[in-house]
Amino acid sequence: MTGVQPEGRFGVLDLDKDGGILSFREKSKEDSGWINGGFMVLEPAIFDFISGDSIVFEKEPLEAVVRKNQLICFQHHGFWQCMDTLRDKEKLDKMWSEGKAPWKLWK
Predict the structure, then answer these.
(1) Which of 80, 60, 74 lies closest to 5, judged by CA?
(2) Are 26 and 96 in contact (CB under 8 A)?
(3) Between vectors from CA 28 to CA 63 and to CA 94, what angle results, nearest 5°?
(4) Phi, psi angles (nearest 5°) of residue 2
(5) Helix or strand or coil: residue 13?
(6) Residue-averaged pLDDT of the chain
């Protein structure tokens, strides 16, 4: 599984047990943690963990594989951007139109 650290969208608060603010800092990649980047290389045996069409792949099958210690993460430190929302699409379109698309490697 490819792990990525998306850009944080919000400032981060560190709180004490009573809700007092210990510190505030602007968002950074390190604040978001590692997430599933959506790219995987799997062995055919993964199908043994899928019991039907109603199974959510990211739930039962992947959780079972993790319990068996058979899933590792490639930590991708390069460019990654999801495109789940209109906001994401507009961000990627803007990068493309401004000539700042890091995924465009050809001339």
Answers:
(1) 80
(2) no
(3) 95
(4) -90, 125
(5) strand
(6) 88
Q: Which of 62, 84, 66 is nearest to 9 (CA)?
A: 84
From residue 100, how far is each of 6, 42, 83, 95, 106 by CA, in Å?
18, 32, 17, 5, 13
Q: Are 5 and 29 in contact (CB under 8 A)?
A: yes
Q: Mark out the alpha helices in the chain (DSSP H runs).
A: 29-32, 60-67, 86-97
pLDDT in tens, 14-45: 788 888 888 777 776 666 678 899 999 999 99
Residue 55 is classified by DSSP as: -
Counting every residue written for the chain, the total comes to 107
Residue 6, classified by CB atoms within 10 Å of its CB into exposed (0-12), middle (13-18) or buried (19+), is middle
Question: Residue 3 has which token pair?
Answer: 């792990």
